[in-house]
Amino acid sequence: MDNRNVIDPSVEHLPDDQVLALCDLQLEPAQQVELRRLLARNREGALSGAEIGQLDTLMQTYRRGLVRKAQAFNVAVQRGLRPPLR
After folding, report:
1. Do residues 82 and 73 lie in contact, with contact meaning Cβ atoms separated by under 8 Å?
2. Rounded distance, CA 74 to CA 72, Å?
3. Is residue 69 part of a domain?
């Protein structure tokens, strides 16, 4: 996921291919590895101040991505691009 400070266009206005791409959105592999590492250190109570900031930033990126992914999935179902979850 891109962590730029850019206002994302409304999912409803995106073309089908971009909606489908958002449905499959994931953190970049390096971000996933770092998030797992930081979460493990957090469970151990061993995060430094800098790591707390890094974890906060990654969690914000993750949450924004989840919201965009959910919005995209909703639009994809409405457009008949994906079946509804059962």
Report:
1. yes
2. 5
3. yes
pTM for this model (two decimals): 0.80
86 lies in a domain? Answer: no
Which residue in the block uniquely carries the two structure tokens 């989840």?
66
The per-residue pLDDT for range 33-67, each reduced to its tens digit, is 999 999 999 999 999 999 999 999 999 999 999 99
Please work out, in degrees rounded to the nearest 5, the angle formed at the alpha carbon of residue 67 by the alpha carbons of 66 and 72.
95
d(CA 22, CA 74) in angstroms, rounded, equals 11
24 part of a folded domain: yes
How many Cα atoms are found within 13 Å in the side-chain-facing hemisphere of 61? Answer: 19
Range of the domain at 60: 15-78
